[in-house]
Amino acid sequence: MKAHIISIGDEILIGQIINSNSAWIGEKLSEINIEVVSISVVGDDEKQIKQEFQRTFDANDLVIVTGGLGPTHDDVTRKCVVDFFKTELVLDEDVLNDVKKFFEVRNRSLTKINEDQALVPKIATPIRNSRGTAPGFWIEKDNKIFVVMPGVPFEMKGMMESFVLPRLEEMNSEEKIILRKNLLTTGIPESYLYEKLGNIDELMDGNKLAFLPNQFGVKMRLNVEGRSKEEAQNKLDEIEQRIRSLVGRYIYGKDDEQLEEVIAKLMIDRGMKLAVAESCTGGLICSRITNVSGSSQFFERGVITYSNAAKVELLHVQEDAIQKYGAVSLEVCRQMAEGVKAISGIDIGIAVTGILGPSGATPTKPVGLVYIGLCDDKICTAKEFHFGDNRLLNKDRASQAALEMLRRHLLGIPYDD
């Protein structure tokens, strides 16, 4: 089955929002062996929308559309669907009840314009929206499928997961089985990772491996084919083991795992407590940790000591060390980790201090210089890192490096590269 994804909205064309919907839908379709052959973006123009409907519906087995289903005047997608399929709008009682309930729960008055969102194309099967008011549409015609959903990512994903993907997966059963897995790495650049894996053709034995770098590391996407699910799974397991034997120390998780989720499991399994002292990251490490449900089982406290005075007053960093080595130094970072552990009375303290830019650099301390410290009952150490010159990316990278340093420490993996 070949698919095309259409995103509708002037806000995408002029760069006010990023087209994340298409990327997410494409990933989910590929997981159920549907090939996305193209993606397009169209503004809120009825003529252009209908032309794009015609072009893509003629050329594909599946067209998925997001955007333009809201209640305001610039939401024209529903009208375009009605015109394109030469159908009419009819009231769907189930959708109307959904809309009424949505407003009742929020203690808001239902307006006529919101009631009208229960009007759906007669040719369509409504896709009910548990997260908003606008329903989606599932249309089958000429042995093809046309799916329309809201552009709000939260609402679209709910419809995809509960309705669209299960139907498509059932309809797209194939003789060959394709399995995919993402192996997530951090602390190693893409080129180094590629070099350590050696001969990729020999490693993959006819299957596919893609490198997908981001600010946190490199995702390795494995695609494996087999004549049965068991055969494909055995191949996938074998290839994964080969990769882990070569670069396993850099792999922190798989598929959609976050490093903070991995840390949470390790800390909880060991019955250990953590405290964090942050300077340049301004609370980002603590934020990521507390994004994980159940983090209160291991996370005791976080302290943001941005100024030198705060480092001295709250973490008991020695003033002489700051004057001699500077706030961004191995010595001060070690004392920060030691201090947050001491004031918390817990098992492990980690700390970060650095120069994220674009200002603040000196001839000996460039932008992107970051120190990360770790202290437990046996060791108190710090490590030097050099990131780029983008302030916000540096915050992400520093937080990732701190969590990765903790992960390796918990697993007994040396952090000497």
Automatic annotation (TrEMBL):
Domain of life of the organism encoding this protein: Bacteria
Ranges in a coiled coil: 222-249
Pfam families linked: CinA, CinA_KH, MoCF_biosynth
Keywords: Coiled coil
Domain MoaB/Mog: 4-170
InterPro entries, per database record: CinA, CinA-like_C, CinA_C, CinA_KH, Competence-induced_CinA, MoaB/Mog-like_dom_sf, MoaB/Mog_dom
SMART domains found in the cross-reference section: MoCF_biosynth
Chain ranges passing through the membrane: none
Family designation: Belongs to the CinA family.
Annotated PANTHER family: NICOTINAMIDE-NUCLEOTIDE AMIDOHYDROLASE PNCC, NMN AMIDOHYDROLASE-LIKE PROTEIN YFAY
Protein name: CinA-like protein
Taxonomic classification: Bacteria, Pseudomonadati, Ignavibacteriota, Ignavibacteria, Ignavibacteriales
